[in-house]
């Protein structure tokens, strides 16, 4: 089955959107990763939720994990407040990469290999017309697994 057939709509934000709105989208929709598009609609980043949580943890706690048990809920409120006034682009981890993507005719093995190689649970399906890309949808790890189970008669 081709990527075009497996692609599903996926909620996304743009680099100019509010970081608070991005966190709200991730949390309310139970998303495995945040898909971020440039303001022109091309994929900018796909960041697993765990990496976004990492952005909320103070550096001193990352350096000394023994501090984590002694930090109380007041600090949790401060973590949430640190998002206010930031755009998604300002909040994303410094080491974000373009989201993994494939063309619309890619097969399931190409999609699976891309997902496995990048450690991101979704792959964007991009159709190019000239040098302009257009997001057709996303193949998530769950959708890929559903397809593989059905193809193997295990659905």
Automatic annotation (TrEMBL):
<feature type="domain" description="CBS">
    <location>
        <begin position="94"/>
        <end position="155"/>
    </location>
</feature>
<dbReference type="InterPro" id="IPR046342">
    <property type="entry name" value="CBS_dom_sf"/>
</dbReference>
<dbReference type="InterPro" id="IPR000644">
    <property type="entry name" value="CBS_dom"/>
</dbReference>
<keyword id="KW-0129">CBS domain</keyword>
<protein>
    <submittedName>
        <fullName>CBS domain-containing protein</fullName>
    </submittedName>
</protein>
<dbReference type="Pfam" id="PF00571">
    <property type="entry name" value="CBS"/>
</dbReference>
């Amino acid at each position: 089955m081709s990527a075009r057939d497996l692609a599903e709509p996926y909620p996304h934000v743009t680099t100019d959107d509010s970081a608070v709105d991005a966190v709200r989208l991730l949390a309310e929709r139970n998303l495995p990763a945040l898909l971020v598009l440039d303001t022109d609609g091309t994929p900018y980043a796909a960041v697993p939720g765990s990496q976004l949580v990492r952005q909320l943890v103070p550096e001193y706690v990352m350096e000394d994990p023994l501090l984590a048990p002694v930090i109380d809920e007041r600090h949790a409120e401060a973590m949430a407040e640190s998002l206010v006034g930031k755009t998604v682009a300002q909040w994303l981890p410094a080491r974000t990469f373009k989201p993994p993507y494939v063309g619309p005719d890619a097969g399931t093995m190409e999609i699976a290999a891309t997902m496995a190689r990048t450690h991101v649970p979704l792959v964007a399906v991009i159709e190019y017309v000239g040098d302009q890309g257009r997001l057709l949808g996303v193949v998530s790890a769950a959708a890929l697994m559903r397809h593989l189970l059905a193809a193997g008669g295990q659905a």
